[in-house]
């Protein structure tokens, strides 16, 4: 599904990614974890072609993504901070994205799931953070693409919506999709992810299942295992 | 690209600033016709306003729109769209809506006054075409500045400086150099100097068409002498076209290499 070789990215003097090699197979939920500033978002944005790497190759669905844009038709992306044009109404935004992607979409069901009907005629600038995130989720999940990339999907959601989101993600996984998630909420990751990719200082420090991680760090609890992996390296 | 253009265009058409800009030209047109009572004279006065004001509005609007639509741009970048079409679509949306405000705002009063039955119709059309050129040129320059400067204040500053330089300072320097080097033949120098400033070029273009030698000034006279009226018109339109295309090309080139 995704194949990354020797990816380097520098912003000014700040080396964010230094030689990431990663291959992600078809199907399953992959959690990209790492401390703040470890390059998770940069990695994701490189896959999306929003950040242009200094060095290295990325291929999505067996095609190199350099100078290409059509492959994004096969990706549903949930951005980290839902920044939408404020003068648009929710309804207009949904219509616009549908018009731009020209793909069959299923937004009615999602609007119902997240009880967004009362907000459809409101401007995006008047919505609360959580509601914006729900709109964000609707925009991402309404298309049926083989690859989903979710950057901090739980931000600002109330408990009920969080449960609904988890159900949605599991449904998508059942359909055999590949889902990439970043999150700092460890319970969420533990519940959802099949595999962990741990980024540290611009490199992949650990890649494997939850069980491998626990054995490696000698911790019984996932949250502590992640904490341990960060401190181990800090000591080293 | 057309879809992005459509959304940017509608977005701007609905915004308050487009109306303000449109109403300003509408008022200006009516007031000038009321005061001058003569279409040709109104065209000359209008030229002096347009040549300074249109670049200023194009610059400020371009920079403002670019920075304000950052979210919109980021949303679009994750969609299956070509980068150059995102930026070019936005650019043509801005430049197009500004041009529309200009053409409608000035066109309505002049048409009501009886433009179609007047001799001045070609002069007036040329004025609007030049105004459109200046809008496209300065919006493109502003987009380039905004694309290259992450910092809004800096970008805004550079854009206003650019306008100030081309609209005011350039002429000052030009005149100064004419005085300092008056002993030398300055024909080709002033010809080139005019070409390098789209505002001067537009002024020369309109004055050539209006055929008012008294207002042509030194550069205009040389222009006329060198090219003759018709060739002069064509050369200046050609150079204005270059002034439009080069920044657009850079915009599309630079946008492909930027990180978001």
Q: What's the helix and strand layout?
A:
The complex is a heterodimer of chains A (236) and B (260).
Chain A: E1 2-11, E2 14-24, E3 28-33, H1 40-48, E4 55-60, E5 63-64, E6 75-78, H2 90-101, H3 107-113, H4 129-141, E7 147-151, H5 159-174, E8 178-182, H6 186-192, E9 195-200, E10 203-208, H7 210-217, H8 222-235
Parallel strand pairs in A: 3-8, 3-9, 6-7, 7-8
Antiparallel strand pairs in A: 1-2, 1-4, 4-5, 9-10
Chain B: H1 2-13, H2 16-36, H3 39-68, H4 70-77, H5 83-113, H6 121-148, H7 152-180, H8 187-195, H9 198-210, H10 213-255
Helix pairs in contact in B: 1-5, 2-3, 2-5, 3-5, 3-6, 3-7, 3-9, 5-6, 5-10, 6-7, 6-9, 6-10, 8-10, 9-10
Number of folding domains of chain B? 1
Query: What is the tally of helical segments of chain B?
Result: 10
**Rg from alpha-carbon coordinates of chain A:** 18 Å
Q: Give the termini distance of chain A in whole angstroms.
A: 34 Å
The average pLDDT of chain A is 87
Which term fits the overall shape of chain A?
globular
Please name the two chains that share the biggest interface, counting residues whose Cβ lies under 8 Å from a Cβ on the partner chain. A-B, 27 and 24 residues
Shape label of chain B: globular
Oligomer: heterodimer
**Biggest sheet statistics of chain B:** none
* Rg over alpha carbons of chain B: 19 Å
Ends distance of chain B: 19 Å
Number of strands of chain A: 10
Order of helices and strands of chain B: HHHHHHHHHH
Report the order of strands and helices of chain A. EEEHEEEHHHEHEHEEHH
Low-confidence parts of chain A lasting 5 or more residues at pLDDT below 50? none
Q: Quick one: biggest sheet of chain A?
A: 6 strands, mixed
**Sequence of strands across the biggest β-sheet of chain A:** 6-7-8-3-9-10
SS field, number of helical segments of chain A: 8
Structural class of chain B: mainly alpha
Strand content of chain A: 25-35%
């Amino acid at each position: 599904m995704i194949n990354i070789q020797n990816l380097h990215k520098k912003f000014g003097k700040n080396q964010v990614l230094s030689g990431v090699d990663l291959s992600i197979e078809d199907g399953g939920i992959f959690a990209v974890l790492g401390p703040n500033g470890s390059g998770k978002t940069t990695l994701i944005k490189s896959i999306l072609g929003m950040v242009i790497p200094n060095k290295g190759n990325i291929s999505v669905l067996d095609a190199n993504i350099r100078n290409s844009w059509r492959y994004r038709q096969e990706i549903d992306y949930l951005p980290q901070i839902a920044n939408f044009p404020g003068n648009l109404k929710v309804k207009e935004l949904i219509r616009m994205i549908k018009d731009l992607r020209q793909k069959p979409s299923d937004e009615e069901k999602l609007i119902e799931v997240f009880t967004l009907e009362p907000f459809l005629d409101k401007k995006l600038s008047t919505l609360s953070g959580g509601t914006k995130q729900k709109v964000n989720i609707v925009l991402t999940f309404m298309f049926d693409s083989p690859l989903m990339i979710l950057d901090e999907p739980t931000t600002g959601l109330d408990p009920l919506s969080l449960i609904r989101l988890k159900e949605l993600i599991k449904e998508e996984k059942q359909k055999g999709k590949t889902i990439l998630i970043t999150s700092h909420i460890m319970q969420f990751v533990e519940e959802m992810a099949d595999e962990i990719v741990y980024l540290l200082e611009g490199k992949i420090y650990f890649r494997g299942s939850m069980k491998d991680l626990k054995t490696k760090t000698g911790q019984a609890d996932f949250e502590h295992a992640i904490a341990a992996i960060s401190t181990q390296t800090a000591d080293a | 690209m057309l879809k992005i253009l459509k959304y940017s265009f509608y977005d701007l058409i609905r915004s308050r600033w487009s109306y303000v800009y449109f109403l300003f030209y509408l008022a200006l047109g009516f007031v000038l016709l009321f005061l001058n009572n003569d279409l040709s004279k109104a065209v000359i006065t209008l030229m002096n306003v347009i040549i300074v004001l249109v670049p200023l509005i194009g610059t400020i609007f371009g920079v403002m729109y670019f920075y304000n639509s950052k979210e919109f741009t980021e949303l679009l970048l994750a969609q299956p769209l070509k980068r150059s079409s995102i930026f070019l679509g936005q650019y043509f949306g801005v430049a197009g809506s500004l041009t529309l405000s200009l053409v409608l705002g000035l066109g309505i009063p002049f048409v009501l006054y009886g433009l179609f039955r007047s001799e001045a119709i070609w002069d007036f059309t040329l004025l609007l075409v030049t105004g459109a050129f200046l809008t496209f040129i300065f919006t493109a320059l502003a987009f380039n500045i905004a694309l290259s400067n992450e910092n809004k204040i800096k970008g805004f500053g550079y854009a206003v400086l650019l306008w100030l330089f081309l609209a005011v300072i350039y002429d000052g320097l030009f005149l100064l150099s004419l005085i300092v080097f008056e002993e030398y033949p300055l024909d080709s120098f002033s010809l080139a100097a005019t070409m390098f400033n789209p505002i001067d070029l537009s002024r020369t273009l309109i004055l050539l068409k209006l055929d008012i030698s008294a207002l042509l000034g030194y550069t205009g006279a040389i222009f006329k002498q060198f090219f003759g009226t018709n060739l002069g018109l064509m050369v200046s339109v050609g150079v204005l076209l270059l002034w439009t295309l080069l920044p657009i090309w850079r915009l599309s080139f630079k946008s492909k290499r930027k990180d978001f």
